[in-house]
Amino acid sequence: MRGSMKKRNKKTAKILAVVLAAALGVCVPETTLRAAETLTSVQIQMPGFVVEQFSAPRLMNVTKNAVVRTLPDNNAAKLTSVTAGNTVWGWGQTNTGWYFVQVGSQIGYVRYEAATYATQDQIAVAQAQAAAAAQQAAAAQAQAAQQAQIAAAAANQPSVAAGIVFIGDSRMVTLKDAVERNLGSCAAAVVAKNGSRHEWLHDTGIPQADKIIGKGSRVIINMGVNDLSDADKYAKDVNYWAAVWSARGAQIYYASVNPVWANSYGMTEERVKLFNDRLKGQLIPQIIWLDSHDYLMGVGVHASDGVHYKDDTNLVLYQYYLSMIGAI
């Protein structure tokens, strides 16, 4: 009799394995979470009991510690156990007082009193938690990949590193010209272009500067006046490369977009302030913020066209930059 019972149990388990093979070892996507009343089911006659198999898994709350068994029988072999407070996936229920559940990669049976179907609100919470966990995992993976990229880029030390590097737009060009015209030479290697925007910085400016930035370099970036709506784009690129250059032993500074007056380019002081505030709030700790805007407003500015400055103001700004990075 005992032998025949074992044969019957093995046969029953085999039938169930075939019927529900698609469920075994399958991770259930969050989109299958449904309230119990929204799903259909089919009745499957098994030797000694009937299984109502669901069309999709139902989230269930484990209400008490229980053993998960291979068959709906208190004498059946133990597969695993569940602990109160956790959740499982319910794939069906029997007419003999058992739920057919998935615990990890294993599928077996627990008594009715050990679990209850989740409510729609609980399902919504589970969906939100699953989505948040997926986002966190993706963010962690992306961060790890970026850190690997930063480490690889940081290892590419230039053969000769510049002591001081200025990166900018036409304002940096006119500053360099004023310094050379009045002082004979500029202490910084200047990577700048008239009319340049974020696209130039990303595609040309940074790659050029990267070739000369290494251990001991002091780098000042002063850009944004030509695209005051793109603070987020600047933050993304500058943060990445500041991490690279800092790892090489350089110190990075970002100088605020400086004052503007009436001009034909659509640049206003209000937009400049918004850009500066938004950018400053996103920069990583390795970047030192230079508030050259307020400094110039304090000492006075002589503008040539509402955007660019006359030589005397450019020389004041140049001396400010050098003093703030400890070069004078």
Number of helices: 8
Residue share in helix: 40-55%
Strand content: 15-25%
At CATH level 3, the topology of the largest domain is Rossmann fold
How do the SSEs run, as a string of H and E? HEEEEEEEEHEHEHEHEHEHH
Provide the structure class. alpha/beta
Number of strands: 13
The largest sheet is: 6 strands, antiparallel
The CATH C-level class name of the largest domain: Alpha Beta
Low-pLDDT stretches are 1-9, 17-36
Query: What do the pLDDT scores average to?
Result: 89
Number of domains: 2
What is the first-to-last residue Cα distance?
Answer: 98 Å
The geometry reads as elongated
CATH homologous superfamily caption of the largest domain: SGNH hydrolase
Round the Cα radius of gyration to an integer and report it. 33 Å
**What is the assembly state of the chains in this entry?**
single chain
CATH architecture of the largest domain: 3-Layer(aba) Sandwich
